[in-house]
Specification:
Distance between the termini: 15 Å
CATH class of the largest domain: Alpha Beta
Oligomer: single chain
Strand content: 15-25%
Bound molecules: N-(iminomethyl)-L-glutamic acid, fe (iii) ion
Shape: globular
Radius of gyration: 21 Å
CATH architecture of the largest domain: Alpha-Beta Barrel
Number of strands: 16
Number of domains: 2
Length: 410
């Protein structure tokens, strides 16, 4: 099957040859072609150029009429498999409770876990599918989804099976992450090591035998899991070939960045508490620093130092953290707006961070994250916009018009 897109006002994020990530000052450059065409063949980007050299229109042709074409967003950190919602905690927060206080009262992650344990696999799939379909309309073409609301072996496996089903039934490119150590279940209070034991000796072998996870994650932060506990989990996960993606330094200088880098994590995520020492460690690594600006916004956290990181020469990725507690939205265009307003990232930097760098953060940079010949034809056509800066600027307007995944319009 072939589709020819013509009269593209700007074809954004054109990278030839392919690259794995962009860092530091390079992040402000976003190569694009004006007045372009793009040919899609068998689900892949086959060729592109400027309209003066447009090929014969033998294929199905779509006239973009000057609108822009972007590679799909890669949302490299989400928790979209969950049951119900937690807007009552949202109100608690308005009334002055902190995220940690809510967690200590048995709210937060434990609240979602209690709901999920009572929800069947089919119902969980149904609820998650609505969110997966929702984010596709926002221009997301690849998404990483974590477990972590099961907390028992059976329920963690249930979550991971739902993620597998989403992989099989949606056109999204999906990576699954096992987050057994998301919060300590109440019954393990006072016996933390027994829970770590359960994660490493019971959950990991079982999910590995079913091939259910691509990555492993730990919430390594104040009030959740320690550096030593994290190290123990990562060491065991490595035996099953699972690379790490760590929740780190959201609530404190937790040592999460250091332990993540020590175990060659694919990414370390959140990073509100990042200082010089953490940046130094990241500079000497292959780990992608990933910022989740909607969580900092929704929980009124301190903002991660994106400018300092880019200034230091680091790459930065952006993701939505879509989850019921700290970021109940998977709208990447709004993530870009928050990155520009609160993190002072330039629109070009934010787009690089949400495409090629976030593709790297979920290890799909070979097939996604840029307009490159041979990559998957996952892209979207915008509504009429005057420039790329308009995308984060018009923060409440849906600017994604038509979405193509695997070469097909959805
Ligand atoms: O990424 N920080 C840890 N986990 C999630 C929040 C999960 C929840 O509150 O349900 C996060 O923010
Ligand atoms: Fe998260």
């Amino acid at each position: 099957m072939e589709v020819l897109l013509v009269n593209i006002g700007q074809l954004i994020q054109v990278r030839e040859p392919a690259l794995t990530m962009v860092k530091g000052a390079e992040m402000a450059h976003l190569p694009s072609i004006s007045n372009a065409w793009l040919l899609v063949k068998d689900g892949k980007i086959s060729d592109y150029g400027t309209m003066e050299n447009c090929p014969e229109r033998s294929a199905e042709t779509y006239d973009c009429k000057g609108r822009f074409v972007f590679p799909s967003w890669c949302d490299s950190h989400t928790h979209i498999v969950y049951a119900g919602s937690r807007e009552s905690e949202f109100v608690d927060k308005i009334n002055g409770l902190s995220y940690e206080e809510i967690a200590r009262r048995g709210g937060g992650i434990l609240n979602s876990a209690a709901r999920l344990q009572q929800t069947s696999e089919d119902e969980l799939y149904r609820q998650a599918l609505v969110r997966a379909e929702e984010i596709m309309t926002y221009g997301t073409g690849a998404v990483e989804i974590k477990s972590g609301y099961g907390l028992s072996t059976e329920d963690e496996i249930k979550m991971l099976r739902v993620i597998r089903r989403l992989k099989e039934t949606t056109p999204l490119t999906i990576k699954a992450t096992f987050l057994g150590a998301h919060a300590l279940p109440a019954e393990y209070k006072g016996n933390r090591s027994a829970f770590i034991q359960k994660v490493t000796q019971e959950m990991l072998p079982q999910l590995a035998s079913e091939g259910l996870a691509d990555f492993v994650d730990v919430f390594c932060d104040k009030g959740f899991f320690t550096v030593d506990e994290t190290a123990e989990i990562l060491e065991n996960a490595a035996k099953y070939g699972l690379q790490a993606k760590i929740h780190a330094n959201e609530l404190d200088y937790s040592g999460g960045i250091q332990v993540g880098v020590k175990f060659d994590a694919r990414s370390v995520d959140h990073l509100e508490y990042t200082g010089e020492e953490e940046m130094e460690v990241l500079l000497n690594s292959n780990t992608m620093p990933t910022l989740l600006p909607s969580t900092a916004f929704f929980l009124r956290l301190k903002q991660p130092p994106a400018r300092e990181m880019i200034q230091a020469g680091l790459p930065v990725a952006l993701a939505s953290d879509y989850n019921p507690g700290s970021s109940p939205s998977g709208r990447m265009q709004f993530i870009l707006s928050l990155a520009c307003v609160n993190l002072r990232m330039l629109p070009e930097e934010a787009i690089n961070a949400a495409t090629i760098n976030s593709a790297y953060a979920m290890n799909v940079q070979q097939e996604l994250g840029s307009i490159t010949k041979g990559k998957k034809a996952n892209l979207f056509v915008s509504h009429e916009i005057p420039s790329i800066a308009f995308l984060p600027y018009a923060f409440g307007t849906q600017l994604v018009d038509k979405v193509m995944l695997n070469g097909r319009w959805i």
